[in-house]
Amino acid sequence: MQKIGFIFASQALLNARSRLPFGHLNDKVANRIIPGFFGLLAYSAALAGAGLSGRLVPFLLCSEAMEMSMGVAFTATGALICEVVPVETRGLAMGGCITCICFDMMASSATVGMLFREVGFRVGFLPAAFLTAFTACFFYLAFRNHYRQKDSAVLEAGWNREEVSSARTLVCNREGRQKWNPAAFSG
Q1: What is the sign of the dihedral through the CA atoms of 53, 57, 63 and 64?
Q2: Is the domain 2-143 a CATH 1.10.760.10 member?
Q3: Mean pLDDT taken over the chain
Q4: Which of these, 173, 171, 167, lies nearest to 153 by C-alpha position?
Q5: Residue 176 pLDDT
Q6: CB-based contacts of 126, cutoff 8 Å, min separation 6
Q7: What is the pLDDT of residues 20-40, one digit of tens each?
Q8: What pTM value is reported for the model?
Q9: What's the CA gap between 35 and 26, in Å, rounded?
Q10: How far is residue 88 from each of residues 91, 172, 184, measured CA to CA in Å?
């Protein structure tokens, strides 16, 4: 039982510690789909690794990798919601995102025991890892046009591709640099 508590404690600590640096990193990335996509893929790989590990230390490392990758993916997702969703419905969108995460945890808890009993502990993690990788691909495909539309708006305003690339690197930070906004470049 002490090992389970140790694993949960290390996961919680790493999840909390990864949110701030990865949130800061997300503020510097022009395309927030990329960290969300790779965060979900890393979570998928860590999930598979946790299932396939046969000893405590590799399981603990994979569990910690899961938490760090969730810090990357969920921070990018929250930031992306702020970009994609209109101001009037952002609370609803964030609430819907958190609700999906909670329903996923509930469904996983309700089904994983039965799955482990049927196929074993090691193999039981693989379907969840596959589903997470599928979700990462769906996430990427669903949001990839968001940045293409922004690029198109700037190109139509007369900017060339190099200027668009430079404009996309402008991000908000404490020094007050301007965040990239296609409307600001249309004039």
Answers
A1: negative
A2: no
A3: 75
A4: 167
A5: 38
A6: 48, 51
A7: 888 888 777 777 888 888 988
A8: 0.71
A9: 7
A10: 8, 22, 22
Sole residue written with tokens 């669903």: 142
Which residue is listed with tokens 């596959």?
130
Count, residues in the chain? 187
pLDDT for 42 equals: 93
Task: Say how far apart CA 159 and CA 62 lie, in whole Å.
Answer: 45
H or E element in which residue 56 lies: helix 56-84
Contacts with 164 (C-beta within 8 Å, 6 or more apart), sequence order: 151, 154, 155
Give the pLDDT of residue 163.
52
Q: What is the pLDDT of residue 155?
A: 56
| Per-residue b or e along 4-16, where b marks 16 or more CB atoms closer than 10 Å to that residue's CB | eeebeeebeebbe
Determine the Cα–Cα distance for residues 113 and 120; give it in Å rounded to an integer.
10
154-175 pLDDT, tens per residue? 556 655 555 554 454 443 333 3
Structure confidence at residue 151 (pLDDT): 57
HSE-up (13 A, CA, CB side) for residue 80: 23
For 168, the token pair is 């996309």
CA-wise closest residue to 159 among 143, 179, 181, 144: 181
